[in-house]
DNA sequence: CGGAGCCCCTGTAAGC
DNA sequence: TGCTTACAGGGGCTCC
């Protein structure tokens, strides 16, 4: 599932290809793909010039001279450059040079339009662009458990299920620890762990569990370095205790019961 | 405010 | 073998 490292990988590869191009036509092959009337959005996009490609959390922000197209890939969404549309193609952006195919098996992904100057609401600062002091203040303002708080995109944007579990393991902190109860030592360890995990995942081109590929169809490599995610029952790389899986806010949560004590 | 539960989706895997 | 069911989860929603 595309989280910050995967979305940033896509952004970096597509930005030079898309910037300066003109959308000659937008086609929605599934009504689920647009948060608006598909015909309305298609009409709005046609003729727009792309001025850049930004990212905030897991959102890709296609900057146009007329506004912003906010693309969220959710679970199985892919943006494929110059690919032949397959059976799960949900939208096409035809450019004056090139074709961008939005492919999405489970159809959770969405295109949403924002007028010029509007930023997607409900998102906290990007996880890669949040200084330690801000991170500490935002966590201390929350009363929930760390797993839930770190997944909350209004606290910080970009972390999903994989990287929250991996960061908590690296920081040796139990996912059910109340966020507000972290002292300075564990807070710093968690902050550093998040930065390290995101940087390493980005350098590896992201994680491909089942569906994720970048705009060229390439898989990431970071799934081979997951320490806890998807490793239920397997030995912890640090202490060999079996990795445990619990459910927190409806999400599978993986941790080492020995290294990450309550 | 927090948390539980449901929903949207569909491919895959497990169970009978 | 073939059918049915459970499960995966980001985020929006309601209800308590």
Describe this structure as you would to a colleague:
The chain is an alpha+beta fold. The chain is built from six helices and ten strands. It folds into two domains: 111 residues, MutM-like, N-terminal (N-terminal domain of MutM-like DNA repair proteins), CATH 3.20.190.10; 129 residues, Helicase, Ruva Protein, domain 3. Helix 1 crosses helix 6. The structure holds a DNA duplex (16 and 16 nucleotides).
Per CATH, the architecture of the largest domain is Orthogonal Bundle
CATH topology-level name of the largest domain: Helicase, Ruva Protein, domain 3
What would you call the structural class? alpha+beta
Largest sheet: 4 strands, antiparallel
Shape label: globular
As laid out across the biggest beta sheet, the strand order is: 1-6-7-5
- Percent range for helical residues? 25-40%
- Give a count of the beta strands, DSSP E runs of length 2 or more: 10
- Uncertain runs are none
Along the chain, the helix and strand elements come as HEHEEEEEEEHHHHEE
Q: What is the CATH class designation of the largest domain?
A: Mainly Alpha
Number of helices: 6
Mean pLDDT: 92
How much of the sequence is in beta strands?
A: 15-25%
Question: Nearest-angstrom radius of gyration?
Answer: 19 Å
Kindly give the count of domains.
2
Report, as a whole number of angstroms, the end-to-end distance: 28 Å
